[in-house]
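Thread title: Can someone regenerate the structure for this chain?

I was given the following input by a collaborator and told the matching structure tokens would be attached. They weren't. Posting the sequence so someone can regenerate them.
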Amino acid sequence: MQLKLRKAPVWMDAQQSLAQWYATGLGQSIADDLETKLLASLREVFGYQGLLVGNLQPERNLLGNAGLHRKLTVDSPGREADINADALQLPIASDTMKLVVLWHTLDFCDNPHQALREADRVLMEDGQLIVIGFNPVSAFGLRHLLTGWRKKSPWYGRFYSRWRLKDWLSVLDYRVLHSEASFIRPPINSERLLRRLSGLERLQPWIGGLGGIYIVQARKQTIPMTLSRRHWRRQRSSMSVGTVSSTAEHARSARRRLKQKKEQ
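Best answer:
Regenerated them for you:
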């Protein structure tokens, strides 16, 4: 009897082809844009160590602007990274990371919820999570719909909207700090045309939501939001009861004083 080898998760299969796509003119233009955005996003992040899941551009230090003592990378076996592992089973102790960046991890993962739970597990309280993905509400999303059947990277991935991602994060009790979509230029692999169309990025304040790449930055809540709401409801209820009882007691005292004056 011949045993069938278990097929590797989609994320592990996709890493090499996705890295090759990022080496193209279009991919490099997007990586330049991401590097600029992350430099601004990570200025206020300080801690001992952070983690980049998906080392698609080893020559770039996307976590460089974060105030972290150690900056680790995770990628699939055989690729250049500090740790070679599956994003669904990170060989990292719980509550040890101040920052986790998921670079297209959800786009190419057969179980995105598990990938988010793993990121949440390794994050410390008050740690930050950054998710980078392809925006389905864009020219990239349109090309994904039209050519995804060809199984070519990155168009065959699963493009999740920022609104859906925010719902997932709210379930895990994360507070979204920043959310934006960028790179309004069309997904054409021509450096010359992309340079000519770079002026489209000036439209970011008006049609930024149609950018091909999104970045969502969220903070892990020290006290879950659901518990906070329950605590506030209990507190508000007890305050209401106390206020009603105090008012009733005051009215009874006033009636007693009035009755005593009449008897006198």
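Residues 47 and 148 are 40 Å apart (CA to CA).
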